[in-house]
């Protein structure tokens, strides 16, 4: 997490391990990140960094534009919907500057006492929860349907959602 | 003269009511409640999934998703189309091609052939790989050598010559890697359909090539999309606002989609129109244009309730694909939340150390 350069207003986070002095600062998080990284297509690995504000970084910590790379409406629209319901959020919106570039500019403005990064992480957490609930209910529904209609249950239906074979 | 169309009043549970000119859209009232942090974290308590139908071979799936915002449903659809991986031919090594088709024409046809392979057992091929690893690539061979014809036959009449050779996808043969075990499942990978016509050759033309089948995502190329279609629509809700009898009922039946309106005999001996099932509505608005029948039916869509139809190409069953799509979305969110920087670079804000939430 301390691998960014010390340029003013520009924090670029490489999605990789954060090594300080040869030892990883947070091995659990890094190993989980490496594991997740395997499941993405190598040309389309998502990443995130905070963009350099043009008018100087006087906008401060409460109004931040995140640049998400290799992302599109699939993640950003639900994230925006979810963050609108966050009590600490004043304004959230996103735009895709050019459709040929896989980049999203995600603007977030929060009230006093909240931090933008924390609010983003809350948003991602809630999105994970939503998808997890929907997935679990879906797989339960499939199992119920198959049992009602006498179809054979495959192994995949019986594994709990989230523990299935990694794609 | 056309009747005045009044804006229909807000009804709970409906997001949109179709009228003669413009649909009446109702925004949800949820945004007006003051959100609290606890309420923020429990957004899906009222959601539900109801599986409507799974076909015999599991390839066609219809299910209802209720209690979620339309953007979540759209994300699932987009993820099914773009992010769920599947296997298709990516590289073609052409050794000999004397047919009338160009190399790239045959190559693009080969790429669109779907393969019956479970993409979860393979890894993505790294972009700068120099050696083909059996974990990531499968090599297929297509060799149609030239049929040898004597010069006498070549100059003969048309019906005496040997016929044209059709190259089908059944001619693709897997070349197993030397390290592959004899009982490995990967030896059974073949195209889903045997009857895909790739090219037609004259007897003296030849086609020799090798194919690399790799794992990819639909975002990269549409050939990697594992569904032939994935669509959703808001659940329609049709209601008859007044009783329609006999002649009018038959006219109503002719104006609405097939099988939507059924005629029942009621106690007075008249034939009454009854809506059989709202989901048979296919989107036609002919009823609303009719002068007398336009006020008898209300066509509306329920709020936050969607019907999905997912048809898989054939590699995996549709239920598995939907589970994978949702899981990939979840993994993306988790990955992004892990790489979101914890401590900002500004001096006047101290971000607290977050405790590990249990998911």
Automatic annotation (TrEMBL), chain A:
Matching Pfam families, A to Z? RNA_pol_L_2
Q: Tell me which GO cellular component terms the UniProt record holds.
A: RNA polymerase I complex; RNA polymerase III complex
Which superkingdom does the taxonomy of this entry point to? Answer: Eukaryota
Q: Does the keyword Acyltransferase apply?
A: no
Where does the record place it?
Nucleus
- Keywords noted in UniProt: DNA-directed RNA polymerase, Nucleus, Transcription
Give the PROSITE patterns listed for this entry.
RNA_POL_L_13KD (PS01154)
> Any coiled-coil ranges, and where?
none
Quote the CDD domains the UniProt record gives. RNAP_I_III_AC19
Q: Tell me, what is one Gene Ontology molecular-function annotation carried by this entry? A: protein dimerization activity
What InterPro entries does the record tag this protein with?
A: RBP11-like, RBP11-like_dimer, RNA_pol_Rpb11_13-16kDa_CS, RNAP_AC19, Rpo11-like
Q: What is this protein called?
A: DNA-directed RNA polymerase I subunit D
Q: Which organism is it from?
A: Ramazzottius varieornatus (Water bear)
Q: Which gene encodes it?
A: RvY_10676-1
From TrEMBL, chain B:
Instruction: Spell out the GO cellular component terms annotated for this protein, sorted alphabetically and separated by semicolons.
Output: RNA polymerase I complex; RNA polymerase III complex
* Keywords linked to the UniProt accession: DNA-directed RNA polymerase, Transcription
* Highest rank taxon of the organism: Eukaryota
> Pfam families attached here?
RNA_pol_A_bac, RNA_pol_L
Domain (DNA-directed RNA polymerase RpoA/D/Rpb3-type) spans: 60-339
GO BP terms, alphabetized:
DNA-templated transcription
GO MF annotation terms: DNA-directed RNA polymerase activity; protein dimerization activity
Q: What family, per the record?
A: Belongs to the archaeal Rpo3/eukaryotic RPB3 RNA polymerase subunit family.
Name-wise, this protein is DNA-directed RNA polymerase RpoA/D/Rpb3-type domain-containing protein
């Amino acid at each position: 997490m301390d691998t960014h350069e010390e340029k003013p207003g520009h924090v670029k986070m490489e999605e990789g391990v954060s090594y300080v002095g040869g030892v990883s600062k947070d091995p659990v998080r890094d190993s989980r990140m490496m594991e997740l990284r395997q499941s993405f297509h190598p040309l389309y690995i998502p990443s995130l960094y905070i963009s350099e504000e043009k008018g100087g970084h006087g906008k401060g910590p409460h109004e931040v534009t995140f640049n998400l790379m290799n992302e599109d409406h699939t993640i950003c629209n639900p994230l925006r919907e979810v963050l609108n319901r966050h009590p600490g959020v004043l304004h959230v919106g996103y735009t895709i500057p050019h459709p040929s570039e896989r980049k999203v500019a995600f603007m977030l403005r929060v009230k006093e006492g909240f931090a933008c990064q924390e609010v983003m992480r809350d948003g991602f957490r809630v999105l994970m929860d939503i998808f997890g609930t929907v997935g679990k209910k879906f797989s339960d529904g499939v199992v119920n349907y198959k049992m009602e209609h006498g179809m054979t249950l495959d192994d995949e239906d019986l594994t709990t959602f989230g523990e299935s074979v990694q794609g | 003269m056309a009747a005045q169309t009044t804006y229909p009043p807000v009804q709970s549970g409906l997001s949109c009511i179709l009228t003669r000119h413009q649909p009446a859209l109702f925004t949800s009232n949820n945004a007006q409640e003051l959100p609290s942090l606890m309420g923020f974290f429990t957004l899906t308590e009222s959601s539900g999934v109801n599986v409507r139908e799974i076909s015999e071979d599991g390839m066609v799936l219809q299910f209802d998703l209720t209690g979620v915002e339309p953007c979540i449903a759209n994300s699932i659809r987009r993820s099914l189309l773009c992010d769920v991986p599947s296997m298709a031919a990516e590289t073609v090594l052409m050794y000999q091609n004397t047919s009338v088709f160009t190399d790239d024409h045959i190559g693009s046809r080969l790429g669109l052939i779907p393969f019956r392979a479970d993409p979860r057992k393979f890894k993505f091929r790294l972009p700068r790989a120099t050696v083909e690893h059996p974990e990531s690539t499968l090599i297929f061979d297509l060799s149609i050598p030239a049929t040898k014809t004597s010069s006498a036959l070549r100059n003969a009449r048309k019906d005496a010559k040997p016929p044209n050779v059709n190259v089908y996808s059944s001619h693709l043969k897997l070349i197993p890697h030397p390290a592959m075990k004899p009982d490995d499942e990967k030896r059974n990978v073949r195209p889903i359909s045997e009857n895909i016509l790739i090219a037609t050759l004259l007897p003296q033309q030849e086609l020799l090539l090798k194919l690399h089948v790799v794992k990819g995502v639909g975002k990269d190329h549409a050939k990697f999309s594992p569904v032939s279609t994935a669509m959703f629509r808001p659940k329609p809700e049709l209601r008859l606002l007044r009783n329609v009898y006999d002649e009018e009922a038959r006219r109503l039946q002719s104006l609405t989609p097939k099988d939507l309106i059924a005629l029942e005999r009621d106690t007075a001996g008249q034939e009454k129109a009854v809506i059989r099932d709202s989901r048979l509505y296919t989107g036609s608005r002919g009823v609303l244009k009719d002068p007398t029948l336009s006020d008898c039916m209300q066509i509306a869509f329920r709020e936050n309730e969607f019907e999905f139809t997912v048809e898989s190409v054939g590699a995996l069953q549709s239920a598995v694909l939907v589970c994978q799509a949702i899981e990939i979305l979840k993994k993306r969110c988790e990955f992004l939340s892990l790489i979101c920087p914890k401590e900002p670079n500004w001096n006047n804000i101290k971000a607290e150390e977050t405790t590990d939430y249990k998911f």
